[in-house]
Amino acid sequence: MRTLAVVGGGAVGLAVAWQAANAGWSVTVFDPTPGSGASWVAGGMLAPLSEGWPGEERVLTFGAAALAAWPAFAEQLRATTGESVFVAEQTMTVALDSADVADLRTVADWLGSLGHQTELLDRAGVRAAEPALARSVRAGLVTTGESAIDNRVLLRALNKACAQVEMRAETVASLDNLPHDRVVLAAGAQSAQLWPDLPVRPVKGEILRLRHRIGAQPAPKRVIRARVHGRPLYFVPRDDGIVVGATQYEAGFDTTVTVGGVRDLIADAETIFGGVAEYELAEAAAGLRPSTPDNLPLLGPLDDRVIAATGHGRNGMLSLALTAELIPRLLEGDETPNLADPQRFSSPTVGGRQ
After folding, report:
1. What are the beta bridge partners of residue 210?
2. Is 257 exposed, middle or buried (0-12, 13-18, 19+ CB in 10 A)?
3. Is the sign of the CA dihedral 217, 219, 222, 227 positive or negative?
4. Predicted TM-score (pTM) of this structure
5. 120 pLDDT tier (thresholds 50, 70, 90)
6. pLDDT tens across 11-70, in order?
7. 168 Cβ partners below 8 Å, 6+ apart?
8. Are 185 and 273 in contact (CB under 8 A)?
């Protein structure tokens, strides 16, 4: 049987390992702490449309394809493990001032010109849809089909699904030392340490998990996105409360949660949803998004043996289903044009193995 090593046991690595095993590969996942890192602290948004902006058509095209891959992937996962991962069915981006409202109209017009369905709500429409939001919210853009998942339920389900995959809690120091026929590099922000010059860098993000308390306002049912004082903010529902995120820092491999980051997230969250002040602060954590220069992942051959499945940035959960579908096809030699091909950054090989 053909053997495959997957280096990295986050959500992407586990999803690829599961689908590769289904395709007939004998798969081993290498990760000293599988299911940790950015996958553990993710918000779980599947929202390529509301993150889009005119001029970013390539990112939108990939994101829309990634979103379309999720229903079948989630149903296959549910049928295999009994786990349902979805926590929201829509996303609403809200505006606090006239400049924000103008931006929502720009995005709505752009998305509409590309055939995507949106709904622009005025102040009353926002209140009717999400009564808990602050009265200072002036408008909202609803993007139908942009859902969200619970990342920790996803990780639990993927671990169940990988029952036929060998898991090794080991750090890989060199891809050349692996005896397997093929290798998938899915080591997130650390991928460039195993393949020098790979254009992946860590971008730090802090996130809060807030637990609902008796008497506190219910959390919004949709994913809520906003900009407050120029800082991006999102709320993602959970069964027991809400996830609030996320800061963005170029801070190397630092995963320290800072007082300033927590302060800004709480203050910005209260601006949009005042009831959040009554929630329990259950967890504050930081993760490292594996980001690339053009905000598209790296999915494709690095040489005749190694395939990249990394660089997903802030859209790791969004891109996961499409990545898990694409990588097994690439292992079989599929040469279909691929927006996320790592060769877009350089000549025939990107960097080299270590």
Report:
1. 242, 281
2. middle
3. positive
4. 0.95
5. very high
6. 999 999 999 999 999 999 999 999 998 999 999 999 999 999 999 999 999 999 999 999
7. 28, 29, 30, 31
8. no
State both tokens at 320.
């996961």
Handedness of CA 162, 167, 173, 175 (dihedral sign): negative
Measure Cα distances from 43 to 199, 214, 279, 352, 354 in Å.
24, 24, 17, 33, 32
Best CA proximity match to 317, nearest among 200, 105, 167, 147: 147
Closest-CA residue to 246 (of 284, 288, 211, 207):
207
Given a cut of 70, whether residue 352 has pLDDT beyond it is no
Encoded tokens for 20: 């590769």
Q: What is the percent of the chain with per-residue pLDDT over 70, rounded to a whole number?
A: 98
What does the angle CA 16 – CA 40 – CA 32 come to, to the nearest 5 degrees?
A: 70
